[in-house]
Design goal:
Distance between the termini: 11 Å
Radius of gyration: 13 Å
Protein name: GTPase-activating protein, putative
Number of helices: 3
Structural class: alpha+beta
InterPro entries: Roadblock/LAMTOR2_dom
Helix content: 40-55%
Domain Roadblock/LAMTOR2: 4-94
Number of domains: 1
Strand content: 25-35%
CATH architecture: 2-Layer Sandwich
Pfam family, one: Robl_LC7
Shape: globular
Order of helices and strands: HEEHEEEH
Largest sheet: 5 strands, antiparallel
CATH class: Alpha Beta
Amino acid sequence: MPFKSVLLELVGSVPGATGAIIADWEGEAVDQVGPMDDYDLRLVGAHKGIILGNLRAMLDRIGEDDLQEVVISTRDTQTLVVPITADYFLVLTGCRRQLLGKARFALQRCVGILKQEIA
């Protein structure tokens, strides 16, 4: 499966992107790319997986089950978390100044490709 090439294209298409990671529902890395340290990127993926799982559980309790994306912004960074399937998700990290609209568009395109590869 060409996950790495899809992730490389994603990171290359978003100005300021510092890493992208595909992880499973437990937060285990499937594949990752980017200038960010590998360990740090895996750690980001695992922690964002916990956040995604908690949000899904909360939404399920109120009868909503279609979580589309999560955007987490700090002073210096921006992280987008997008479910690919019920079992996999994609995380894109970048500097705070990255263009959110371009990142969201690129993520959705990437998710479409990954859904076909995973299925």
